[in-house]
Design brief:
Structural class: alpha+beta
Distance between the termini: 63 Å
Number of domains: 2
CATH class of the largest domain: Alpha Beta
Strand content: 15-25%
Largest sheet: 8 strands, antiparallel
Length: 460
């Protein structure tokens, strides 16, 4: 662990290196390291001189009082908060209050939100308020108040880069969950275009970084015009209880994949079915050589769309029997779930198949859970049935029984080369044509998708 008072000096050095590495992000302003007044180390610094980062640091009277009050209280709980999952941010994080622990039962949490805070404020207080407790993971939501104070997306992303650098320097194995800035409204001096640009820069900032899981929380809350919905954000900035419930639901699958919650499995399979996934490892699954049709489709897609997913071709078949994680880290068996992890590339197409083929008519049943806007699919012998966070990613956005960020049941009944496909009992494809034989497969593209209770029954 880095001693809190020496952290600022390290951070200033990191800012120089990181600025050279990312010329598209504004370099952080730095000079001599600021020395906190000895009489009270939790007072807000009187000026910005020598402070790390760039942009606004609020100094309204109410904010200075709240800053000192909350940080002084946290200093007294450093011991008891060791190893907690730290939620770091502003009033939206602070507003979770006592409901934070209730949202994630069995997981030790610490709320480090300060109403009114900015990315620069978070950067300044990171060592004492966060690193000092050696977190099991850190969840970050910050940036909306920077917009209100006139900071540019470039400056905001520059501060975020320094925050992530410091977290990485403290512990390169500590998971970090970065949430997109939530929608708000022009009447709150937070227009959609600015928020989207910040989120675009955040996403670019963590591309290829396996330590950070990026969660698409803007799309989760955005209304038809891209602003906050009054029924979830009564003042168009802060969440009500229903919105906090949605945020918690979006984070639970990520925490489950990190092994922080949902560690128990309990399922009794129906008579006549056999399991295709044992819940412990990837036995029976592997990569197949990418077909010529998929290769050509990938080339056309990537040529036509600059935002198309990366799609590495498989040149040699791989069998994952006995492995708990695929060699590329994309697929993992975790506590009864077959998890397609969030790709650091943001979008990356990979395809996992059973090593067996299924020529008989059959009923396939499974359950899936998607993070916001996740994009996946289930291969039925060869064709792909879209399996996504349907409300946000489509194509079936009007399903009445779909449960966002919760478990949903997919049932596929194949008879005579035609598949009837339902989600929670609602028909999503009444007559999907499938070939005479082939494997069952799972595709990964965007976001995290989990599958469990994957089972099949041959029909006579």
């Amino acid at each position: 662990m880095i001693p809190p008072r020496s952290w600022l000096s390290l951070l200033l050095g990191l800012s120089v290196v990181a600025s050279l590495a990312m010329p598209n992000v504004a370099p952080a302003q730095s000079s001599a390291t600021y020395t906190v007044e000895k009489r009270d180390p939790y007072l807000l610094p009187p000026t910005d001189d020598g402070l790390p980062g760039a942009g606004p640091l609020r100094r309204y009277d109410w904010f200075q009082n709240l800053w000192r009050e909350r940080r002084s209280a946290w200093a007294k709980s450093v011991g008891q908060d060791q190893g907690a999952v730290v939620f770091l941010g502003d009033s939206i994080t602070q507003g979770w209050g006592g409901g934070l622990g209730a949202a994630f039962p069995g997981m030790k949490v610490a709320n480090r939100g300060i109403s009114g805070d900015t990315t620069r404020g978070v950067l300044f207080r990171l060592a004492d308020d966060v690193l000092a407790v050696n977190p099991a993971a850190v969840v970050i939501l910050i940036g909306t108040n920077d917009i209100d104070e006139g900071a540019t997306p470039e400056t905001i992303a520059g501060n975020m880069r320094l925050i992530l650098d410091a977290l990485r320097a403290h512990d390169p194995r500590m998971p970090v969950v970065l949430c997109e800035v939530f929608p708000s409204s022009p009447v709150k001096n937070r227009p959609r275009a600015t928020i989207e640009e910040i989120n675009r820069r955040y996403r670019a900032l963590v591309k290829g970084d396996r330590q950070v899981t990026y969660v698409e929380t803007w799309a989760l809350f955005a209304g038809p015009e891209g602003d906050a919905r009054p029924e979830e954000f009564p003042d168009l900035l802060h969440l009500n209880d229903a919105a906090y419930g949605k945020w918690a639901a979006a984070l639970r699958p990520v925490f489950a994949t990190l092994g922080l919650i949902e560690k128990e499995t309990d399922f009794v399979m129906e008579e006549g079915f056999e399991s295709l996934f044992n819940g412990r490892d990837l036995t029976g699954w592997g990569y197949r050589v990418t077909s010529e049709a998929d290769r050509e489709g990938a080339r056309r897609w990537q040529a036509a769309d600059p935002g198309a997913a990366e799609w590495p071709f498989v040149e040699k078949a791989e069998n994952f029997d006995g492995l708990t994680v695929s060699p590329d880290g994309r697929y993992a068996a975790i506590n009864g779930r077959l998890v397609i992890t969030t790709p650091p590339e943001y979008r990356k197409v990979t395809q996992l198949f059973t090593t067996r083929e299924f020529p008989q008519d059959f009923v396939l049943k499974l359950e899936f859970r998607a993070t916001p806007n996740a994009d996946s699919g289930v291969y039925i012998r060869a064709p792909q049935l879209q399996c996504r966070d349907y409300v946000l990613a489509g194509p079936w956005k009007d399903l009445k029984r779909y449960r966002p960020q919760d478990w949903n049941e997919l049932v596929v009944e194949v008879r005579g080369g035609v598949a009837l496909c339902t989600c929670n009992g609602e028909v999503i494809d009444p007559a999907m044509k499938v070939p005479a034989t082939g494997p069952i497969g799972l595709e990964g593209d965007r976001g995290q998708m989990e599958y469990r209770r994957i089972r099949i029954k041959a029909l006579k």
